[in-house]
Structures are given as structure tokens and as C-alpha cells.
Amino acid sequence: KPVMSVAFALMLTTVGWIASAYAEPGDVLWGAKSAFNSVVENGRLALAPESEQASLKLSYASKQAHILKQVVETTNVDGEKKEKLVEKTADSLQKKLDSAQESIKTIALNDSLDLVKKVSLSTQDISQTLKETMVNATVGGISDTIEKTAVETTKQSLEMVGDAVQKKTDANFEISNEEKELVKDHIDAAVESIIAEVAKAQNKLNEQSTSSTLAVPTSPTGTLISPSSTLLLSTSTSIMDAIATVKTIDEQKKTVNSLKETNLIEALNTTKALAEQVTTVIEKIT
Questions:
Q1: Measured between alpha carbons, how far is 190 from 126 in angstroms, rounded to an integer?
Q2: Strand pairing partners for 233?
Q3: Model confidence pLDDT, tens digit, residues 121-144
Q4: pLDDT at 118 over 60
Q5: Which terminus of the chain has a lower count of CB atoms within 10 Å, N or C?
Q6: Could you give the 3-state DSSP secondary structure of residue 263?
């Protein structure tokens, strides 16, 4: 009887795991599916050598970004429950990215030969997935979560690529032409994301300006709000300190484009600084 009981319990557990593999966001077994995936990932990490840790973690982060997209697009659940599920999934993505970045920083120099390519391709995939996710994130709370995740991921991906380039440089490995082009493409994609965020910031400024008109110079590609001086923005209830002078994104892009040809790490750092500027602006507006 004890043997039969154990066998029956194992059978039920196995059937449960198999059933959970087909679960969709909002299903009863969705939590079991997530837990099972976590067990599998941790198991693979425990057996993988240090040289493969960063690559594995990046693949898990990429997978999590696609899961987040799946959660946002699901019609099985809505309302407050869906918002919480989105927040939980986005938090899991952030933790996986943090873990991957830590592995990139600590990887041995002699294991960093292919690191730049792996990091750039993986983080670009994550950023692109989040952009696609934003299209379907129309509900207030969900939209805010995805937008914040996308902005933070853009900055972190630039950091991670910079870490990979620095690590390979420290190891005296040459950055190949293919890798240089990948990094340049990564920077260009990040700049375009920054332009989109600036456009959103300007729209919010215009919406908030009810008693006076705020003249904001623009360029064909957008503008960048820079915290070097102060403007006044009138709202229906009070006058708040707005965010500063406006510089065209074209000027910033020229600086980045120049750096891309001479110093990839500095180009990455400059682009990240621009992303942080925009984040600060958006936080003040909202």
C-alpha cells in the first residue's frame, strides 16, 4: 500500500506538470507552469559551468519578456487581477536581467570572447518584445507598468552591452566588425526609443498646460528635454516647476554618432545618460 500510494502521488504530480505545460495566463495551472519553469531553469544553471551562466540567464530573460507579452495579450483575465499578473511577470523579468548582468560583470576574461554578440542580440530581442507588448498595453495600470519596464530595460541593456565590451577589451580580445555593427544598431534602436519617450513627455506637458501655452521647439525627429534650466508650467491647480531647457535630439544624435566611430563604451554611456534624462522628465510630469 505505501508503494502504491507513492506511485499514485507521483503519477498525479506528473500529470499535473504535464497539464500545466499547456496552461495560459489566468488559468488555474498557470502558477504551476511558472513554478515548473523556474525549477528547470535553476536546475540547468546549477549544472552549467560559469562560462555559460551569462548566456543562459540572458536566454531566460528573453523568454520572460515573451511571457510578459503573452500575459498582456491574454483575454483569459482582466481588471485588477491582470494588472497584478503583469506586475509580477515584469518583476520576474527585472530579476532575471539583474542576474544576467551580474554574471556578465563576473565572467572570467578568457570566457568573454563571444560575450558582446550574445548580450547585444539577447537584449535587443528583449527590447523589441517590450515595444511590441506596449502596443497591446492599453489599460492604464498595465500600460504604465510596461512603459516603465521598457524604459528601464533600454537603459539596462546599454549598461550590459557596455559591460560586455569592457570585459572583452580588458581581456585584450579584438572587437570584431560584426560586433561593432551590432552595438551601433543597438545604440540606434535605443536612441529611437528615447525619441519616442520624449514625444510622450511633450504630449503630457501640453495636456497639463491649461492656463498658458508652453512653446517647445521641435525637430523633425523629436526633441530631448535636458535638466539645465527651469521653465514654468501652468496647471489648473498650481504652477509647477517644469523640467528645463529643450535641446534637439538631432544635436544629441550627432554626438552619439560621432562617438560610435571612436569609442563604443562612451557612446553607450552617453546614450544611457540621455535615457536617464528622459526618465527623470517623465517622472516629474507624471
A1: 12
A2: 240
A3: 999 999 999 999 998 888 778 998
A4: yes
A5: N
A6: coil
Cell of 284: 516629474
Q: What is the torsional sign of CA 128, 143, 286, 211?
A: positive
CA 223 to chain centre: 22
User: Whole-angstrom distance between the N-terminal and C-terminal Cα of the chain?
Assistant: 64
Rounded Cα distance between 157 and 231, Å, is 32
Separation of alpha carbons 267 and 278, rounded Å: 17
Looking up cell 555559460 gives 52
User: In a 10 Å sphere around its CB, with 0-12 CB exposed, 13-18 middle and 19+ buried, how is residue 81 labelled?
Assistant: exposed
- Residue 67 CA to residue 32 CA, distance in Å, equals 14
pLDDT at 127: 93
Distance, in Å, from the CA atom of 119 to the CA atom of 99, rounded to the nearest integer, reads 13
Q: How many residues does the chain have?
A: 286
CB count, 10 Å around CB of 29?
Answer: 17
* Structure confidence at residue 67 as a pLDDT band (50, 70, 90): very high
Lowest mean pLDDT: which of 46-60, 129-143, 168-182? 129-143
Cα-Cα-Cα-Cα dihedral of 243, 248, 254, 260, to 10°? 40
pLDDT tens profile 223-265: 544 444 343 344 333 333 334 434 556 677 888 889 998 999 9
Q: What are phi and psi of 220, to 5 degrees?
A: -55, -30
Give the torsion sign (CA, 137, 140, 142, 144): positive
Give Cα 15 distance to the centre of its chain: 35
Average pLDDT along the chain: 80
d(Cα 191, Cα 10) in Å, to the nearest integer? 52
